[in-house]
Amino acid sequence: STINIRYEYHSIVFDAGSTGTRIHIFVFELLTQDPLKLGLKSENFLEVKPGLNEYFDEPEKAAESMRPLLQFALQVVPENIRKETGLQFLATAGLRLLKPEQTDAILKSVTKLLSEYPFNVTSISILDGDSEGINAWMTINFLKDSLHLQEGSFGVVDLGGGSTQVTFKVLEENRSLYPKEKIADIHIGCKTETLYTRSYLGYGFRSSRKSILLTDKDVDENEKTIKLSHPCIPLGRIANWTFEGVNYTITGENGDCFDVIRSFVIKKDDNGQKFVEAPQYLDRQPIYAISHYYDHALTYGLLNGDEAVLTVDAYYVRAKAICEEMFATNTNYTSRRESLSNEQKENFLRTYPFACLDLTYVTLLLNQGLGLKLNKTITAAKKIDGKEASWALG
Fold it and tell me: Phi, psi (5° rounding) for residue 125?
């Protein structure tokens, strides 16, 4: 008979994203059976907002914003094992998008802050987009117990504030369909999995919002205050937004909002290649959509609870319902429609003046960018079995 030696250990992962800084404290149990199995016993999670990149001129303040997360870790991790508890600090697109000297100053401050705490800091670095995508794929498929399934593993699309990732398993016979630099061979246990992974910097929901708002606008991006009008803001509305230290004031104007967003999503480089490409076979995979794909769905009432199955066009159908006049001429993209009361529309727009831009962007990114059909179902998720659906566990 096998003796089950249970050995628990803690692991701390900081996810410094563009919209917030999060701490994940994982408790793993080692079940030393044959084959060796690692179980995730529990996870503690806490987030502070805004992201570190909002303190681009105040690196000490950036680090200081993390203190509540470290105090939380002291509460969770027993004193006798703190010294051996590994801590990784990984930043994503928010810091990738800053100037190198700003990023360095913030990382220096973070290093200094972490040195005040008893944990074993193993890494303070910027996670590249491909690793972010691969780790998200690992997390979802670990939690769904589908890491080694030949068929039936889940593709993962992840919408951050600064970047967006797409990752899925590639069957050996299809490997040659994809450019070498987009294929990663990863070792899990004694097996190797082949993944397609792409990260698009600047296509997260906040950086793309900025690009869409500034499309064909003659503005000086060095100004601290930018005023403009835009067809993706309903007529008669004013939207205020502060991003990367710039205050935007945007009023509505007549024009084709849908087309402005679509043009951004299908933009081509100088060689006529689309920036965002639709990888073959992605459409055939069951797909988990995480981060802001989930957050937008929750914010705009497309789901409640930790996960829900949605169609790709659900976001745009909701945008059409909130901003009917804005999309009135655009009838041939999807025939699906829904109606909201005037009070519901007013509530959304008063709180979220960018509702129609952000929702339309999600559907167009998935459909015109990544090539998913409008009626394709995706699972938007924040948690799976009570565990956060993010790259941190991977």
Answer: -160, 175
